[in-house]
Amino acid sequence: xxxxxxxxxxxxxxxxxxxxxxxxxxxxxxxxxxxxxxxxxxxxxxxxxxxxxxxxxxxxxxxxxxxxxxxxxxxxxxxxxxxxxxxxxxxxxxxxxxxxxxxxxxxxxxxxxx
Amino acid sequence: xxxxxxxxxxxxxxxxxxxxxxxxxxxxxxxxxxxxxxxxxxxxxxxxxxxxxxxxxxxxxxxxxxxxxxxxxxxxxxxxxxxxxxxxxxxxxxxxxxxxxxxxxxxxxxxxxx
Lengths: 114, 114
Hints:
Shape of chain B: globular
Radius of gyration of chain A: 13 Å
Mean pLDDT of chain B: 89
Shape of chain A: globular
Structural class of chain A: mainly beta
Strand content of chain B: over 45%
Low-confidence stretches of chain B: none
Number of helices of chain A: 0
Strand order of the largest sheet of chain B: 1-9-8-3-4
Oligomer: heterodimer
């Protein structure tokens, strides 16, 4: 158990809809990163939040957005869902400010867009 | 693009040591080598990381060559539960607020056989 929890675990949405995924970080961790993992691929970095501000973003369109709250939990929002958005979405928490802390992952949310 | 190269698959007999190689010939002086594994459809699990010295913990050992251009993850006594995809990642150590994203390749699919 990593102490990182994601909800929901599974979700089915229709193309064009919007979805919100949630992540509770490990106690004391102030940095949350989100990744998208398509079937058979390694995770792809979406963005990262550090102390409630986005401080890094991968090659994802603006319809992928996020938030980090004062308790360091986080949300990933995806608008105008497309079929290719079907993937496992992973959240990782870590402690920013130190040189080499590892990131701990949640179990992910499996999103299916139909 | 991932900065590491790993064999796509490997087999290992249960109880034997599993040695997983990783090539990171373009690694920079301030980049650490991280290893994660992912058991089918679960979130990635942190295993170990190192900078230039060999490292050992309760899960594995990490051997980094002197020129730091390659490394080997060693699972000393592989069990069936070690069957997973193993990812080798290099990542710069950052100060507070720096982008700490992990860039993942396709990893090595390790099959531990009875």
